[in-house]
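Team,

Forwarding the record for the chain on the shared tracking sheet. I've put the sequence and predicted structure together so nobody has to dig through attachments.
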Amino acid sequence: VDEIGVSLRQLVRDARVRVQAGDSGATRASIEAFMEYLGHNGNLFRLLLGEAEGSSSAFRDALNREIGRFIDELKEDLVTAARAKNRPLWNPELVAQGITLSTFHMGARALDLDESEHGRITEEIIAFVRIALKGAEAEAAGWDPG
């Protein structure tokens, strides 16, 4: 679990470096890196997802710790980006949790689809992340949906 998580987190970090070099937006680069990882490691990801529901409590605990690391890293990135843009986010930890878990779930869905559908799923994940971030910005700015 640790090795898989480390390799996936490193791939996402590399995507962030590409963003800093001006290649593309952070959301797009990170989601594309995640989908690339799934394309090369689909069976491993399937195994992790399956084991999250069953297997030993030690394995589930390790998997939950790894997901927690993703959430923590994303939260730090979100807070840093929000400060840089002077656009605070409402509850960055909850936003990071929602984005991480939704991305994993939607990515898992892509594993069962034809590869030609992966582009569509990638765009859906990117749209979801942008919606979550805009909503968190609006909430922090005092928007009241009624």
